[in-house]
Design a protein that fits this description.
429 residues, alpha+beta, Alpha-Beta Plaits, 3 domains, five-stranded antiparallel sheet, three-stranded antiparallel sheet, 8 strands, rod-shaped
């Protein structure tokens, strides 16, 4: 009876009623998707408790997928509406299909965003150590989103105009020169990002130094077009990705992974304080526990060598220049090495040496070359400071002086001593 009533209506009223019924059905399906479909998918995701389901069944993704079925209802049901012309059916069907494509692509974009969030959460949860082992996928995600949006635009446009996507692509091919100009930076950055990732040249958490752009700090973000570096003063430097391939920069990852941070510093000693050690000096220095084994072994070796020299040279063998003797600077170097090898704050599995460099007008350089057992900046500076505080303080025990340019205080002391000597000479006269 109701159907017969509608059949008696004007054609345009039947068409209007059919469209209204189709729209109402789509709204009902939409509510069913929100009330039933989405909660079921959330329960499946929560029970699975895996990163894959968290990405595929992300809230934003399932929310957009829930909009696909109502559009499909419109797409299929539009052909059943009476008294609609073929042209109207085609246009409305094309519009519905274009929206279906857009919603599917939006759902895929939401999955890519969820994938990026999952990586950041894993890095943040496991700390800096894991962060340095993780390569950023943000550039690939951004490129994937760009490709998906371009593909969605092409398919949607082709659907709306009822044309094949190949025709749209052929039109874009004729504009290749313009497209290359528009996407020049994107192409350069993506190529640089692929090379950086494939060659393992840059990771999240790496400490890089690039003075030409004012970057000196940790890499906090690697995107398609830019790399963000948080400097030590907490400022952010943004570097175009392609510049990291075209220009040089320093990556401190090797130092961080090695577990040791290098100390390379010199003590410049006054050359006039360098001398041979007398027996009294050796006896005094033997009181230093770290030096006692060195002095005992060295004296035994030198005694044997000097005895051979006396046998070979006779009386001339007793001449000081023909004998081997200990020096205060050599003994000091031996002490520094033993001191460093006994320190728990120095990495014993890496290079450790104390060497004398070529004398300069600023004195005789004694270089300390070793690595701390920690790469943390504060610990490194504290260790280095403690070592050189001790070495500077113990220099007088070896009869050595640190070189320094004359200061005003030095000049005052010298002039005061000269005046005292002059006064004494005048009194004696």
């Amino acid at each position: 009876m109701n159907l017969s009533y509608f059949t008696k209506l004007e054609p345009w009223l039947q068409a209007f009623a059919g469209l209204a019924a189709l729209l109402a059905l789509a709204v009902v399906v939409r509510f069913l998707m929100v009330l039933v479909f989405m909660p079921v998918l959330r329960r499946i995701r929560n029970r699975a408790n895996s990163k894959l389901t968290d990405v595929v069944l992300a809230d934003a993704a399932i929310r957009r997928m829930a909009q696909v079925l109502p559009l499909m209802v419109m797409l299929i049901g539009i052909e059943e509406v009476p008294y609609l012309t073929a042209k109207v059916v085609t246009v409305m069907g094309n519009i519905a299909m274009a929206f279906v494509v857009i919603q599917i692509v939006r759902s895929l974009l939401a999955m890519l965003d969820a994938l990026l969030v999952a990586q950041h959460q894993s890095v943040a949860g496991d700390g800096q150590t894991v962060a340095m082992k993780v390569r950023s996928i943000k550039s690939y995600v951004q490129l994937g989103k760009l490709i998906l949006m371009v593909a969605a635009a092409i398919i949607a446009a082709a659907t709306l105009f009822n044309r094949s996507p190949l025709i749209v692509l052929s039109g874009l091919g004729a504009m290749s020169a313009v497209l290359m100009l528009v996407f020049k930076d994107t192409i350069l950055s993506f190529t640089a990002g692929v090379l950086l990732s494939s060659n393992d040249m840059l990771r999240l958490g790496d400490w890089i130094e690039m003075p030409q752009v004012g970057a000196d700090g940790d890499v906090v973000d690697i995107a398609l077009h830019t790399v963000k570096v948080q400097n030590w003063d907490k400022t952010i430097t943004t570097i175009p990705t392609w510049r990291l391939m075209s220009e040089s920069y320093r990556n401190w990852r090797g130092m961080s992974e090695s577990g040791g941070r290098r100390i390379k510093r010199t003590l410049r000693l006054d050359a006039s304080s360098v001398r041979f050690l007398e027996d009294a000096d050796i006896a005094y220095l033997s009181n230093i526990a770290l030096l006692r084994p060195y002095l005992q072994g060295k004296r035994a070796v030198l005694t044997e060598l000097n005895s051979q020299a006396r046998v070979e040279l006779g009386e001339k063998g007793a001449f000081p220049a023909n004998q081997r003797r200990l020096t205060n600077i050599g003994t000091f170097r031996a002490y520094v090495e033993v001191y460093l090898r006994g320190s728990p704050r120095i990495h014993q599995g890496m290079t450790l040496m104390v060497r004398a460099l070529e004398p300069t007008p600023e004195g005789v350089p004694i270089e300390v070359y070793c690595f701390t057992a920690s790469t943390a900046w504060a610990v490194y500076e504290s260790t280095q400071g403690d070592i050189f505080d001790h070495l500077l303080s113990i220099l007088p025990e070896f009869g050595l002086r640190l070189y320094q340019s004359p200061t005003g205080n030095d000049l005052r002391i010298g002039m005061a001593a000269q005046r005292a000597e002059s006064t004494q000479a005048l009194r004696k006269a």
